[in-house]
Design goal:
The chain is α/β, with parallel strands linked by helices. The protein has four domains: 193 residues, inorganic pyrophosphatase (n-terminal core) (Alpha-Beta Complex), CATH 3.90.1640.30; 81 residues, no CATH class; 103 residues, Diaminopimelate Epimerase, Chain A, domain 1 (Roll); 119 residues, OB fold (Dihydrolipoamide Acetyltransferase, E2P), CATH 2.40.50.140. Helix 5 runs antiparallel to helix 6 and helix 9 crosses helix 11. The protein binds manganese (II) ion.
């Protein structure tokens, strides 16, 4: 990897001289696990290392010159960024001015001008001239590469046999959580790391698994478990509070402290869910009562005091429910902070770029954007985006698109097939889990709603194989997470016939385990 030799040489020099090193991370899963990996590696080599993870709300994303200045005042000479730094041009110049050596390790793409920050070394497979074959590594995996290079120089056998397998656990969690494509080397990292997670592990991970009610020793851990059960808990710290406690959780050796920190993450995650649910209800009420707003083709939803840590998740939820591009904005001290998500065929960054004069900052891509602007400019933003969207989306009815891989009637689901599907693990971004469609499935009973949000259906499929008689399979249990709204929209009841988009799940609950299906989408079946 381009820059590796220079980086290793400088870090080894710092370790030998016991120069204090500062790791500069990010507040999400990728950024915090990257800090954990490199901190652990440097400490194993007897280096002196501290870290800084920005506060999402007080500091925002990326490096800050003030932190570098404070570090310099405390005697730091070497700063290593993880999962950040690729666009920190001004801060890199600050580092240079302060006499700080800077090593950037990051996976983010370069800016449009392909500018590179001034640094002693840059590790990023996406930089020009780097021929490292896997370009889509997450930040933690790049940190892992540096850790690996450092550890192998000291003791290659111990590094390969003992240390790296355990580091792969963290890298796998980050790879899945950061939504990099699960192909190529990422797939290898994720698969090996998931396997390692079955073995005994540090107290922090064990406490986190316990808090999430997951037992990796008895249950085969999947990419889904990591993406939807572990990652939200790790991310809750950065969303709601301070991400540095995640790093403490994963580096402490004190079981009671780990249990305490995991309980705090659990609490933060619950708060995050409650906050999210509360704002979502407010938004749904508004859409139900304000006809003009509901008629907009692009939804701009704003509120005072909505928590800034959840606006991105909320935008995704609104898109799921309405099939329209949506911006969710919270207003704090006169400043509007927004996050947006889009649908296929409506590049959201292009849309908000038409209002670039209104923003104090903005960025993102076709499907997701983030921005800030003075709250006084909100009416103008709404007006312009409304007319932009009505031109672009005029001829289109909002529709929920579901990518179906194959048609598979419910009676064709077998344990053997489920076994084959398991071989596709870990599934996720870049390696999507197969979605099947069963046509004309029939509800045997009324919809069962769980916790106001989720549903359970008992389905059967009338089978007509061209013969004279129509048989019927027994019943198949289908669960729909966050699908209560959709069942209500369709007015489903016993006897309703639906076309069901679904994924096959193996429920390993000892009492009601077995194969079930998870609903990906539903519509009324027509003859
Ligand atoms: Mn990242």
């Amino acid at each position: 990897m381009l820059g590796m030799t220079a980086a290793v040489e400088r870090v080894e020099r710092a370790i030998a001289a016991r120069e204090p090193i500062l790791l500069y991370g990010d507040y999400d899963v990728d950024g915090t696990t990257a800090v954990v990996l490199l901190k652990t590696a440097i400490e194993m080599l007897d280096g002196v290392v501290s870290f800084h993870v920005p506060h999402r709300i007080r500091e925002g994303y990326g490096m800050q010159s003030s932190v570098l200045e404070a570090a310099r005042a405390e005697g730091i000479r070497l700063v290593i960024t993880v999962d950040t730094g690729m666009r920190a041009f001004a801060e890199a110049d600050t580092a240079q001015r302060l006499g700080l050596d800077l090593i950037v390790t990051d996976h983010h793409l370069l800016d449009a001008h392909e500018r590179i920050p001034h640094a002693l070394a840059i590790l990023n497979p996406n930089q020009p001239g780097c021929d490292y074959p896997e370009k889509a590594l997450c930040g933690a995996s790049i940190a892992l590469k540096l850790a690996q290079a450092l550890l192998e120089r000291r003791d290659p056998i111990r590094a390969r046999e003992k240390i790296l397998p355990s580091f792969l656990k963290m890298a796998a969690i980050a790879t899945i959580a950061d939504a990099v494509p699960l192909r190529g080397e990422n797939r290898t990292i994720a698969a090996l790391g998931l396997r390692e997670l079955r073995r005994p592990m540090g107290v922090g991970l064990r406490a986190l698994f316990a808090a999430a009610a997951l037992d990796p020793a008895s249950k085969r851990l999947t990419g889904f478990d990591v993406a939807f059960r572990l990652a939200p808990r790790i991310n809750a710290a950065g969303r709601m509070d301070v991400a540095s406690e995640v790093i403490e959780l994963f580096t402490t050796r004190d079981l009671s402290r780990a249990t305490e920190l995991a309980a705090k993450l659990e609490q933060l995650n619950r708060e995050r869910r409650d906050t999210e649910a509360f704002v979502l209800r407010t938004i749904e009420e508004r859409l139900a009562t304000e006809a003009e707003l509901a008629a907009e083709r692009l939804l701009v939803l704003d509120g005072d005091g909505w928590h800034r840590g959840v606006i991105g998740i909320l935008a995704s939820r609104v898109v799921e429910r309405t099939a329209k591009p949506a911006l969710v904005i919270c207003v704090e001290d006169g400043i509007a902070h927004g996050s947006g998500r889009s649908v296929d065929g409506f590049p959201l960054l292009e849309a908000i770029e038409t209002c670039s004069d209104l923003f104090t900052r903005y960025g993102g891509h076709a499907f997701a954007v983030g921005f800030a602007l003075p709250a006084t400019a909100l009416p103008e933003l709404k007006k312009r985006l409304s007319s932009y969207a009505s031109e672009r989306l005029a001829a289109r009815e909002p529709e929920r698109l579901l990518h179906i891989h194959a048609e598979l009637p419910l009676d064709r689901i077998t344990p053997v097939l489920a076994g084959w599907l398991r071989k596709l693990e870990p599934v996720g971004h870049g390696n999507p889990e197969p979605v099947f469609i069963a046509r004309k499935a029939r509800l045997l009973a009324p919809v069962r709603v769980m916790k106001d949000r989720h549903i359970r259906l008992d389905l059967t499929q009338d089978v007509d194989r061209g013969g004279s008689h129509a048989a019927s399979i027994g019943s198949m249990r289908a669960v729909g997470w966050d699908m209560a709204f959709r069942a209500a929209e369709l007015g489903l009841t016993a006897g309703s016939r639906i076309n069901l988009g679904y994924r096959i799940r193996e429920n390993d609950h000892p009492d009601f385990g077995g194969i079930e299906v998870e609903i990906a989408g539903m519509e009324h079946a027509t003859d």
